[in-house]
Specification:
With 343 residues, the protein is an alpha/beta fold. The chain is built from 12 helices and 16 strands.
Length: 343
C-alpha cells in the first residue's frame, strides 16, 4: 500500500481527522436493526451528512444513549463521543436533555443542528434542558438580568438603529440585525420619550414594534427580526404579579373630574403626568404599530367623561376605550410599572 493511501486511511479512521482537526464527534451505535437490512447503511450516510465523525456500529452494548467527554482539544473545545441506539424500527436515539432524543431518516435538518450544537458548544449543548429561545436556564437568567438595565435617554431625533446601539452599550450584550431591515431601522423612534427610564428589554421591544420588528433571545444576546417571522418575541413588559393598588398605587387615587372637548391624545397628555409612581409620572407607552394597523389616531379621537368622582385607572380606561384602545398595566424586567396603550 502506498504512503498516500495509508495517510488517507489513517485520517478517515482517526475520530478527529488529521493533526487533531475536528471532523465531528465520533459516534458508536448499538444497532438493534436487522444486519441484512438497509437501515444501518442509510444511517451511516445520514450521520456523515449531519456532521458526525467516525461512526461505528456494534451489535451489543448499553441501550441507553449517553455522551462521554474524552478530554480537551486545542482551542478549548471538548472531545466528546456519542453513544446512541439504532432501534429495530430504524429510529436513531441520541442523548438529549430529557432522556433520549429520537430521529427519523427524514430529520436531516434536526440531526445536523444536533451535531452543530455539539461541535460548537460541547456536551452541555444537547444535555442541558432548554427553555425560551433555546436558552438554558442560566443563559436566560443572564440575558434577563442584563436587560433590567434602564435604557438611557435617546438623542433628539433618534432612529431605531440608534436605540439598538444604545441598548447594546447599556445592557452590554450583542444585538444582531440583518441587512434586510437596515432601511426600517433608519426610521425615527416615535416612542423614545415615553420609554425613557424603562428597562432595556421592554423599552427596546416597544420601540422596535412600531415598525413591525421584534427581538428574540439567542445564546450570544439578542437578534432583531421582523415580528411575523417569530412565534415568541421578547415581550413589551409583563403582567404584574400584584394588584394595581400594589403595583402602581397612583392609579387608584380618587379625583373629581370632567373631560369635554378633548381628543384622547390631549386627555392623556393632561392627565398622565398626574398619575405618579415613586415621585415621577407613570409612563404611558403607545403601541404605534397596532394603531396604524387598525387606523386609529388618538390625536383625532374625541373623548369625554361626565363630571364625577372616580379614580385614575377607571378614568383612563374609559377614555382609552372611546378611542378603541385599552391601557394595560405592565411591568418591565426591573419591576417598573408602565401603561401600554394598545388594541
Amino acid at each position: 500500500m502506498s504512503f498516500r493511501k495509508v495517510l488517507i486511511l489513517a485520517a478517515a479512521c482517526h475520530p478527529y481527522g488529521l493533526a487533531g482537526v475536528a471532523a465531528g464527534p465520533p459516534v458508536e451505535l448499538v444497532s438493534q436493526a436487522a444486519p441484512h437490512g438497509t437501515a444501518p447503511q442509510q444511517w451511516l450516510q445520514r450521520l456523515a451528512e449531519a456532521g458526525a465523525g467516525t461512526t461505528r456500529l456494534v451489535t451489543s452494548g448499553s441501550a441507553e444513549p449517553r455522551l462521554e467527554e474524552l478530554g480537551d482539544l486545542r482551542g478549548g473545545k471538548s472531545l466528546v463521543k456519542v453513544y446512541g441506539v439504532l432501534t429495530r424500527g430504524g429510529v436513531l436515539m441520541l442523548p438529549g436533555a430529557e432522556g433520549a432524543e429520537r430521529f427519523g431518516l427524514g430529520d436531516r435538518t434536526k440531526l445536523a443542528a444536533y451535531f452543530e450544537r455539539l461541535e460548537s458548544q460541547g456536551a452541555e449543548a444537547v444535555t442541558v434542558p432548554r427553555g425560551k429561545y433555546g436558552l438554558t436556564e442560566a443563559e436566560f437568567t443572564d440575558l434577563f438580568t442584563r436587560l433590567q438595565t434602564p435604557l438611557p435617554k435617546l438623542p433628539e431625533g433618534a432612529t431605531l438603529r440608534d436605540a439598538v446601539d444604545v441598548a447594546k452599550r447599556a445592557a452590554r450584550i450583542s444585538i444582531k440585525t440583518d441587512r434586510s431591515i437596515d432601511a426600517v431601522l433608519a426610521t425615527k423612534a416615535e416612542a423614545a420619550t415615553s420609554v425613557e427610564g424603562l428597562a432595556t428589554g421592554a423599552a427596546l421591544a416597544a420601540l422596535l414594534r412600531q415598525e413591525g420588528l421584534a427581538i428574540v433571545g439567542e445564546r450570544a444576546g439578542l437578534r432583531v427580526v421582523t415580528a411575523h417571522d417569530v412565534k415568541e418575541a421578547w415581550p413589551v413588559g409583563y403582567d404584574p404579579e400584584g394588584t394595581p393598588t400594589q403595583t402602581a398605587p397612583g392609579l387608584m387615587k380618587f379625583l373629581t373630574i370632567e373631560v369635554e372637548g378633548y381628543t384622547l391624545a390631549e386627555a392623556l397628555e393632561a392627565i398622565g403626568p398626574r398619575v405618579s409612581w415613586q415621585d415621577r409620572p407613570l409612563p404611558i407607552v403607545w403601541d404605534h404599530f397596532a394603531m396604524r394597523r387598525d387606523g386609529i389616531d388618538p390625536a383625532t379621537a374625541e373623548v369625554k367623561f361626565p363630571r364625577r368622582r372616580t379614580f385614575y385607572k377607571n378614568l383612563l380606561d374609559k377614555l382609552a376605550s372611546q378611542g378603541r384602545l385599552k391601557l394595560d398595566l405592565r411591568v418591565d424586567e426591573a419591576g417598573t410599572p408602565f401603561l401600554w396603550l394598545t388594541r
